[in-house]
Design a protein that fits this description.
heterodimer, A: Heat Shock Protein 90, 3 domains, two-stranded antiparallel sheet, 9% strand, B: 152 residues, Rossmann fold, five-stranded parallel sheet
Chain lengths: 452, 152
């Protein structure tokens, strides 16, 4: 997962996430706004329906007022009792107009109103007729007309139409309320999920920033410092190689001139002393060379390719053996699996290990050097085994140290850099090196490398 | 160390800033009997003046071209690689064999020297015996075995 993040490049990923967060924010805002608009509309239409229903009730009560007026007048014959009739008459028409306007968009309601119009006209005519009869014919004539029940029948028809209109309006109300609850539920989901997802993305962005960007900000100056130190080291080593060796060469060279040109004046003892001076200078020269190559290893580029280890090990051994042609050594090597690494550096590893094996078996009667390997999972372990002087395991930790030796220069020559080089090279390949030994019985040196 | 050779009859030009190293080189070459034809200059500027017969050496009129130039890299005024570049770039001097004699084992110096046309590269060892052996063998090779290019 970490590798994937690194691959996609932290900046790209962050940019994408931030874009997504903004997108989520915009989408949620937009959808919420849409919902608000729909709610507004629904509420408007709900109020509208309530108004229609109310007006329908008003229509009935207007007609009932007219009936009350007419009844009062028929009974009493007094003009005052006609008041509710007169008000009702004006109101009915007004209410009917309002209903027509309000239901203008609804075909069904319009049809009902169209059916209602003649009925209302009939009712008005009937009531007017009853009043005229009372005014002109007197009580008995009016009463006879009322007993025909015509008025009641018309009123019942009107009530039936109003009831239908009420039902229609209730249906509309239900649709609106259903829509409202649907919108409510949807908006709730959008806001909740949008917030959760947006929040998770935000957390992810913060995590990435914290882990990679801030990490980079801290690492960058440290890296620059390390590179700077490395460059200074390079300049230092270059100067060391040139400036330290020149005087050493002079010491060695001019001591030799003494030996050559003033041999008779020096005598044997003088020559021996000169020999010590020369030997010391040369040892110092070797130390400088080894230190220089060791430091160069740290800076060297590791160019990894697939390496035929069998061929490489044989080449390295042949080279080492060339500088000890008189030695009789039994060399046994099993076929080695290929490895992944820098050919030149790994050659140095073999060369160092063989140089040691050859050197430390110099006092062994039947010197034998064995090379082999074991493999597991994703790495291979190679080893060089010898039956030479060996070493005491209690000093094993010192073995790979720089210039660390377990013998004196007189016993076995060398500077103690060979194994330090091996360790450095192997570690730069991501592997490890170790050793086992027994005094007088020999030693085995192992190094692991990742598989090819 | 004094220059005893006639500047018009020089076979070997030794460009070396260290008098100690110069003495050791000369001694090595004397072992193969070519000391009398060596001329020693101490810096890059003098080396160029000698080769092109300018400045201090304006009066130099060589009978024959140099058989070999032993050139150190770390030199005052004009460094070895610059001298090498100038010599190999000039029609009159580019056939002169140049042997780099230096303490530097750095890859970049090695690469650059050959790129500029050095004929050989010797690293000065600390051990005097090896040093003498290397220089005397080189001297013998370039002066006795190697055939220089035909002049004119």
């Amino acid at each position: 997962m970490t590798l994937l993040i690194k691959k996609l490049s932290v900046n790209t990923l962050n940019a994408v996430l931030i874009f997504l967060i903004m997108a989520i924010f915009l989408v949620v805002s937009f959808l919420s706004y849409q919902s608000l608009l729909r709610i507004d509309t629904d509420e408007y239409w709900v109020l509208h329906s309530y108004q229609v229903q109310g007006d329908l009730d008003t229509l009935i009560s207007d007609l009932e007022n007219m009936e009350t007026g007419q009844r009062g007048y028929v009974i009493t014959g007094q003009q005052d009792f006609l008041e509710p009739y007169n008000t009702g008459l004006t109101d009915v028409n007004k209410t009917f107009q309002t209903l027509q306007t309000l239901t203008a968009g609804n075909a069904t309601q319009q049809q009902y109103l169209a059916a209602m119009q003649p009925l209302i006209a009939a009712k008005e005519a009937d009531l007017q007729n009853s009043i005229s009869l009372r005014t002109n014919g007197g009580f008995n004539v009016a009463q006879a007309d009322v007993l025909t029940d015509k008025g009641k029948m018309i009123m019942d028809s009107i009530r039936a139409v109003v009831a239908s209109m009420q039902t229609t309006e209730t249906g509309l109300l239900q649709t609106r309320t259903d829509d409202l609850s649907q919108i409510n539920a949807m908006t709730e989901s959008i806001v909740i999920w949008g917030s959760i997802i947006g929040f998770l993305f935000a957390v992810l962005v913060n995590y990435i920033i914290y882990k990679f960007v801030i990490g980079e900000m801290v690492r960058k100056p440290l890296l620059e410092e390390a590179l700077k130190a490395n460059k200074e080291m390079e300049a230092f080593s270059y100067s060391v190689s040139h400036d330290l060796r020149a005087p050493l060469r002079a010491i060695d060279g001019f001591t030799q001139i003494l030996v050559e040109d003033y041999a008779d004046k020096l005598g044997d003892e003088g020559k021996r002393v000169a020999g010590v001076v020369r030997a010391s200078t040369q040892q110092m020269g070797r130390l400088i060379d080894d230190l220089l190559s060791f430091s160069r290893l740290g800076r060297a580029e590791v160019k990894k390719t697939s390496i035929n280890m069998t061929v490489l090990a044989n080449e390295a051994y042949a080279e080492v053996k060339r500088s000890a042609p008189d030695r009789n050594i039994e060399f046994v090597m099993a076929a080695l699996p290929d490895a992944n690494g820098d050919v030149d550096l790994i050659r140095q590893v073999w060369a160092n290990l063989f140089t040691n094996a050859v050197k430390f078996t110099s006092k062994t009667e039947k010197a034998k050097i064995e090379v082999g390997s074991t493999s597991d999972g994703n790495s291979v372990t190679y080893y060089v085994k010898d039956n030479g002087a060996g070493f005491d395991m209690q000093y094993v930790a010192k073995l790979f140290g720089v210039f660390q030796r377990l013998h004196s220069v007189e016993e076995f020559e060398g500077t103690g850099i060979g194994l330090a080089n091996v360790k450095r090279i192997i570690e730069r390949h991501g592997g490890s090196a170790r050793a086992e030994g027994r005094v007088g019985e020999g030693a085995i040196f192992y190094f692991t490398l990742p598989k090819a | 160390m004094e220059n005893t050779a006639n500047m018009n009859e020089v076979d070997v030009l030794m460009v070396e800033d260290s008098p100690n190293d110069a003495e050791l080189i000369a001694r090595a070459l004397s072992k193969v009997n070519i000391a009398n034809k060596i001329y020693w200059v101490k810096d890059g500027e003098e080396a160029l003046e000698f080769v092109f017969s300018t400045g201090k050496y304006a009066s130099r009129m060589p009978i024959a071209p140099l058989k070999v130039m032993l050139l150190d890299l770390k030199l005052p005024k004009v460094n070895g690689l610059e001298v090498l570049a100038k010599i190999k770039a000039d029609e009159r001097t580019k056939t002169v064999p140049v042997v780099i004699v230096t303490s530097s084992q750095e890859d970049r110096d090695l690469k650059e020297a050959y790129k500029l046309g050095a004929n050989s590269y010797i690293v000065k060892p600390i051990d005097a015996t090896s040093f003498v052996k290397a220089l005397s063998e080189a001297g013998l090779y370039w002066l006795a075995i190697n055939k220089p290019p035909v002049i004119k």
